[in-house]
Design brief:
heterodimer; A: 580 residues; alpha/beta; Rossmann fold; 3 domains; six-stranded parallel β-sheet; 23 helices; B: 180 residues; alpha+beta; Alpha-Beta Plaits; 2 domains; five-stranded antiparallel β-sheet; four-stranded antiparallel β-sheet; 4 helices; 38% strand; binds thiamine diphosphate; binds magnesium ion
Chain lengths: 580, 180
Amino acid sequence: MSETRTGAQIMCEALIREGVEVMFGIPGGAIMPFYYAMWEYRDQLRHVLCRHEQGAGHAAEGYARATGRLGVCIGTSGPGVTNLVTPIADAMMDSTPILAICGQVGSHVLGKDAFQETDITGITMPITKHNYLVKDVNDLAYVFKEAIHIATTGRPGPVLIDITKDAMQKATVPNWDQKLNLPGYKPTYAPNRKQVREAIKLLLSAQKPLIIAGNGVIMAGASEELRHFAEQLRIPVITTLHGIGSFPEDHPLSLGMPGMHGWVHCNRAIQECDVLFNIGGRFDDRVTGKASTFAPNARVIHVDIDPSEIGKNVKVAVPIVGDARLTLQALLEELPEREALAELHAHASDWMEHIRDMQDKHQGKQQYVNRANTEHMALPPHDVYEKLNRALALRGNYRVVTDVGQHQMWAAQLLDWNAGPRTHITSGGAGTMGFAVPASLGVAIAHPNDTIWAIVGDGGFQMTNQEMATIMQEGIKNIKVAVINNGYLGMVRQWQELFENKRYSGTPLSGPNFARLAEAYGWKGLTVEHADQVQAAIDEAHATDGPVLVDFRVEREVNVFPMVPQNKSIGEMIITEADA
Amino acid sequence: MRKHTIVALVQDRPGVLSRVAGLVRRRGYNIESLAVGHSEQPGVSRMTIVVESDHVEQVVKQLYRLIEVIKVSDVTTDPTVEREMVVLKLHAPAAARHEVVSMCGVFDAKIVDVGTSTMIVEMTGTPAKVENFIEVVRPYGIKEMMRTGRIAMVRGARGHNASEYVESAGPNGATVPTLN
Ligand SMILES: Cc1ncc(C[n+]2csc(CCOP(=O)(O)OP(=O)(O)O)c2C)c(N)n1
Ligand SMILES: [Mg+2]
């Protein structure tokens, strides 16, 4: 009973059929037919007008990461879609399901360098999971269905659809019932049982077993299963930057974060362990350090939904291709009787004791914030995190979005991540400065009843802060921004201090008065210059029914420790200022 | 680095060739040759890719990440029939012609064009034999050369029929869009 629709109407209906409720974008010539049609569907499809397409892309990512659902962003041909390139690359690196809808010039001028023509499918080929150029209105219903299927299944990722203006304008009777024709795309969800039993055999033989949990656990919704599994076997759990939230840090088996700015006891445990069970992590070089020296004593079990991740960076003894949740369920089903676990439990408890000893020796989490030299400082950054940590725990229902740099690593280290999956959202694989403010917009729309804190450096903040206007226009009240303002591109400055004779080349950074800038956008803006004022500012931000920015003017030259220098083994950490 | 012969079945959609070539390049592997054409199944193409890599299993896995790639096999150590074609324009004035013609006879090469001072010859064989032929005729003077790159097919009952992988195609493939 389908009736004739324009291509643009088909696009709207396709999105609605797939459960899309919100889109982030900016209109322009080539995409105008879509905006024309959108008007008719505005009760079902909310459009959020961003101030820059990069912001729209990150907002879509924030929405997707906070929910696990598809995030949608829109740009017009030429500069509109090239502005989407950064968030698309970011989504590719962090396996985030987003759909980028791009307007393209009319098919009759395609290939003729028409006004605002850009080969966006060519540009994004290496940074999308898949992309399409649609020139025929009759392909739209099918392509949207296939594109969304690809973005949201298997290992999720960004998919881009470039649509010529005439394909949006022409009309046809859409066929919604076409079956997907994807003979080459069959993601494996259920793990191979034989491999599952091999993994258990290996784990049972371990004396120093270790679990690493990554983003895959969160995306698969496998936190409960992970907890059961770790508890059954009593194996300690390390959570990567993107694994934060998959396993509560207040759990007795939780060790914290590994890698370049991970905890000493985590990295040492990795170097000493004899069986390493990595679920949903991809052995990124910020986790492994110099890969050839990583976990030298370990036999590795690697669970990943993407077969190409297995064996890419680290040699694997037992590969398992599958969804994290189904794999953990299978592992739990295949576990032997309790008596058969006794030996493993005994070893694991000695091993845990040893790891906790290392942790005590090298500072546990809150003691170890490298505070030895902070007494003279008016506002050490650590104070901000300490107070925020307490305030968030008391408040509950919060999510934290971080940008890229020192403030990001401090957030990962110093906040207690006990609020569950999808409460820590950051740009990991791509390390995209400017991510946090627009991403928080997407997170806030997805979770209007939560308090969303965006923690951002003064550098990254100045890349995308115009989305404060979008947040205001949309009437979003639950976003609070903490600018960790150190007057530097701090993380780069830290490398210059430690490895480049303090040549602060291109890193000292000024900015406007951020609180007054926020006020200009209609936000509440607060400035904190002293440790005494931190608590009051956070309280005021929480008490305010509207967006608030707090400019924390922290001590300028403070380093993030511990640290593994790039390309070094994670066994060679700089633990405190004194080792540097 | 070792040379590997990879045979891939891919969905015949616009851009698939540049996706495959781009992926192999950006993952840091060298393509020595790439040949592509229709397979026995409409909508499916078969590619033969010769790559240099010490991590061929990574090449294969990465290729599988492409949505349109249906089946990839490294056939380097399988029993295969491998063929390549070369077309050569040789310097062949009247005096040299007789020798060139007899050389072509030895290699089963065909003479497809004769000009006043040139000849175009066509030769098909295993890549090694093609190489050999080129070396033998090189002294006469090669004015132009064009090679197709290698195509490979696994011998016997092994190998993959493309129709096995397109179960979703309708009775005559008409119900599924081809996205052209
Ligand atoms: C878009 C982009 N440009 C450059 C970089 C390189 N980079 C990584 S961290 C960093 C410094 C970030 O400074 P700031 O936002 O002030 O945060 P801080 O490290 O001071 O906390 C830079 C420039 C990047 N990650 N992203
Ligand atoms: Mg800074």
